[in-house]
Amino acid sequence: MTDQATPTPVGAPRRAGRHGAAEPSHLSPERLERARRLIALYPEPRSALIPLCHLAQEQDGWLTPEAMVDVAALVGVTPTEVLGTASFYDMLHTEPVGSHVVAVCTNIACLLGGAAELLEHAEASLGVNVGGTTADGVVTLEEAECLADCDRTPCVQVNHRFVGAQTPESFDALVADLRSGARAEEIPSHGTLIRVARANGLEADPDRVVAERAAMAEAQARRAAEAEAAKAASDRGAGGPPS
Amino acid sequence: MITDPPKIVTSRLEHADSHTLERYLATGGYDGLRRALTMTPEAVAEEVDAASLLGRGGAGFPAGRKWAMLRKNPVTYLVVNGDESEPATFKDHLLVERDPHQLLEGVVIAAYALQVSQVFIFVRGEFALGLERVQAALNDAYSHGAVGADIFGSGFSVDVVVHPGAGAYICGEETALLESLEGKRGFPRIKPPFFPAAIGLYGEPTVVNNVETMSNLPWIVIHGGAAFAALGEGRSTGTRLFALAGHVNNPGVFELEMVKTTFNDLINAPVLGGGIPHGRGLKAFIPGGVSAPWFGPDQIDLPLGQDEVAAAGSMLGSGSIVVMDDHTCAVRAAWRITKFFARESCGQCTPCREGSGWLEKIMERIETGQGREEDLDLLLDACDNIAPGLTWPPQQTTICVLGPSIPSSIGSAIEMFRDEFLVHIKEGGCPYE
Fold first, then answer.
1. Contact B163 A51 (CB under 8 A)
2. Which residues lie closer than 8 Å to B134 by C-beta, 6 or more apart?
3. What are the average pLDDT values for consecutive 10-residue runs of chain A, which has 243 residues?
4. Which residues of chain B fall short of a pLDDT of 50?
5. Which pLDDT score is estimated for B75?
6. Please, what are the domains in chain B?
7. Per the CB < 8 Å rule, is A148 touching B128?
8. Which of A47, A71, B217, B364 could join B106 via S-S bond, C-beta 3.0 to 4.6 A?
9. B73 and B67 in contact (C-beta within 8 Å)?
10. Chain B contact set for A228 (CB, 8 A)
């Protein structure tokens, strides 16, 4: 640790090197660039851990061990900490999944709308149980908890895009569309979550980020002092603290 | 009674392009922010106080008071909770997808009132379209000068970051949300003593507010807190989004004046829920998300007000109402709700982690015909271990309220439909199949 005295640049992993992390090598150069921009949005690099896991899933379709090593190096934690965090979350898949994760909600509102019957049909028609992936790798079937689209039941999402209420017949048509690629534009393959990039804001210039954060800290200190002064003044005005 | 209040948060939804900046500006968008910026931050906070806007997330804590807790400490972060995942709640989904600029305007108004320069909007990961809409709106708002440096030339600056969740119900709990935002597992933090107002994101004073709460602010600033407080009754002021689901002809999200409208109106009025399909009767309804104790037909004339529902032994919670017709199996419904809690328990506290799993297994065997005579007592005993006394509001043995929510829903189902549970056990199966 020779660089302790040097201030850490914004966006760089705070604890880089502590675990002997190598330079990220699995994520593509374009995604590495996006990863660094995401990290720069947060006061602490680790806050970008989940967004970076989404980014890794966008590249590989699932969260691979190699990607977790990269994410760890980028945010300054160990790969085990990335796995330990990612394994908590339903959307982060640490095992391979199909190109389309089809989630059928069976929670209360959907249950009342026939979701259990739809899920049964889906299992039979796809030939897989919940959690399984079809042999052609196109569909992984999931039983989801409430997806917040409860006026269109039973509710189904494909790769986290709502496809509206489904009947057994429409479900089969949906799967046929996924296999033929007919809805590829509307439903990107699994892992792609947010297709709108942040266009402006703090990612512009690291020096400006440092300056703005310093100004923010200064303004807060000033407001604190003002608040103290105002409080002191009002205490005096009220004739001292109440007995 | 169905009143005709102003549309405070749903005024733009009739337009197909309600999510665009063009439509937003054409319908008075960002006027509230411009007005707020001419006021002092304290004056803006006072309007919100005067509105006595109750938080729309589920706990119903007054937003103004939450903010006041922070005026002692200069606030460092504003975090917006868009992790809507209480089963059968789908109002924030609507606001995020259909009117993201209204949310952003509310957020910047709140940031100004609190004098915060960094905001994080935590949006549920499963809302892929919503995340894209909010990010696109944010890009447009930056270009328009409504977010970023020197907003509308006022000298006030704030940066807003859209943060995607990754699928965990518990992250709707505000301290779990903060943990998740710090890049960790969504484990709720122990509180008291330290609420986010004192020690929040990165250990700094933080306000966490719900999407719908924020979306009310532009209207409140333009029309004044008093105009908002004039709607509704008692502590439940203004309008509120009610998400109606289950066995009704016309499920959906309705913006209604608080207290004035009853559950009966909401479920049966032709302009609202439109009644129960197939001419069936009402068996039970859940008044405020699945964490709330169930109500029966006797309570249908209760008004949609926070205190009124609380006094009757349940909660208005997240404002979502699930209707079950008289062909519904109460055991199956209660089992599914228990399965949800068992699946979403974060695992920190033993009563919730173990209790939810045991409850689910017992409920499953009752529904599938393997129930035993002692199972009802066993269920209630396990419930009692999670929330002693099975009181309402529940006693807490756990860090957060997820655990104690389980006995509330199961306990009320058993209390209301004890005979039905017994029939399952005695006949060795579900009589509805």
1. yes
2. B82, B96, B100, B103, B104, B121, B123, B162
3. 46 48 89 95 96 98 98 97 98 98 98 97 98 98 97 97 97 98 96 92 52 66 78 66 42
4. none
5. 78
6. 21-229 (3.40.50.11540), 232-325 (3.10.20.600), 330-427 (1.20.1440.230)
7. no
8. B217
9. no
10. none
Q: Quick one: closest CA in B to A154, which residue?
A: B246
Comparing CA positions, the residue from B84, B183, B410 lying closest to residue A76 is B183
Structural domains in chain A, sorted by start: 8-96+191-215 (1.10.10.1590), 100-180 (3.40.30.10)
Backbone dihedral angles phi then psi of residue B230, each to the nearest 5 degrees: -70, -20
Q: What's the token pair of residue B140?
A: 């447009």
Q: How far is B84 from chain A (nearest CA, A)?
A: 7
Which residues of chain A neighbour B333 with C-beta distances below 8 Å?
A: 108, 111-112
List B161's β-bridge partners, or say none.
B120
Reported as a single tens digit per residue, the pLDDT across B180-226 is: 999 999 999 998 888 898 899 999 999 999 999 999 999 999 999 99
Quote the ipTM score. Answer: 0.95
Q: Are B163 and A44 in contact (CB under 8 A)?
A: no
What pLDDT score was predicted for residue A17?
A: 46
pTM of this prediction?
A: 0.91
Contact between B161 and A41 using a beta-carbon 8 Å cutoff: yes
In three-state secondary structure terms, B148 is strand
Length of chain B: 433
Residue of B nearest to A113 (CA): B246
